[in-house]
Design brief:
Belongs to the inositol monophosphatase superfamily. The structure is a single chain. About 35% of the residues lie in helices and about 25% in strands. The chain is built from seven helices and 14 strands. The protein is globular, with a radius of gyration of 17 Å. The model has no long low-confidence stretch (mean pLDDT about 95).
Length: about 270
């Protein structure tokens, strides 16, 4: 029987090493940086160095297994592929990293036939490590995680994210404005992997965002699901949009899904 737990150990060890590199590089990495899809979508030298380190270590520890990374791409160009593939976000929350906001991570997941089976999300600024193996639960520094027990959407705290393109960001802002009267409050933190981990820990009651790459959610979504969250990945929620990621405590999942649909999330 396949046991994914050894893959968690590998992801954790490599993630810690990449996180230490990212921390060491920050002073120099933020001096000069490039942009990708828009002028607000940044990539630093540390993003590239972190991904190269992860690829090198994986080639040593798991030779022959393909790697999909945010900066260098890989098999399937972000789509699901057969077999075991490693999915890497070398710095999730690069804008936070750029500004010195300590809410960013190194995210590493192992996927089998396109589904996450093991993952680690490392916070370089704090040293905290979030982990999960499919069927074995999720943990923060070894302590088990569980989603919140909330059942009242109106008293729920929701996390969200914005796209980089201004025209889509405006549509998202309009939808979130309609949602704002239906919940306790909203939080925009800027790192999808850690937002998903926050759902796992009950720090957020739910989180949803459009336009995430596989590297953004591969580890965090598994951590949330193993903590008991209802998770819907891109392509599974047409009412919210084909590229929507959704994670919620089970007590509010249905109500939230309906409220988001009514608020126009499927049209953003």
């Amino acid at each position: 029987m396949f046991d994914p737990r050894p893959l968690v150990d590998i992801a954790t060890a490599i993630g810690r090493e990449a996180g230490a590199l990212v921390q060491r590089m920050r002073a120099s990495a933020v001096v000069s940086f490039d942009t990708k899809s828009t002028s607000t979508d940044v990539v630093t030298a540390a993003d590239r160095a972190s991904e190269q380190l992860v690829r090198t270590r994986l080639s040593e520890l798991r030779p022959g297994e393909p790697v999909l990374g945010e900066e260098e791409g890989g098999p399937g160009d972000g789509a699901a592929v057969e077999g075991l593939t490693w999915v890497v976000d070398p710095i999730d929350g690069t804008v936070n990293y750029l500004y010195g906001i300590p809410w960013y991570s190194v995210s590493i997941a192992a996927q089998l036939d396109g589904e996450s089976v093991a993952g680690a999300v490392v916070e370089p600024a704090t040293g905290r490590v979030w982990t999960a193996a499919r069927g074995y639960g999720s943990y923060l520094d070894g302590a088990p995680l569980r989603v919140s027990a909330t059942t009242d959407l109106s008293l729920s705290l929701l996390g969200y994210g914005f796209a980089y393109r201004p025209e889509r960001r405006q549509r998202q802002a309009d939808a979130w404005a309609r949602m704002s009267t239906r919940v306790r409050d909203l939080r925009r933190a800027g790192a999808a992997s850690l937002d998903l981990c926050s759902v796992a820990a009950g720090r957020l009651d739910a989180y949803t965002e459009h336009g995430l790459g596989r590297w953004d959610w591969a580890a965090g979504a598994l951590i949330a699901a193993e903590a008991g969250a209802v998770v819907r990945l891109p392509g599974s929620s047409p009412e919210l949009g084909e590229d929507a990621t959704f994670a919620a405590a089970p007590g509010i999942a249905d109500a939230l899904y309906g409220a988001l649909s009514e608020s126009g999330f499927g049209e953003v």
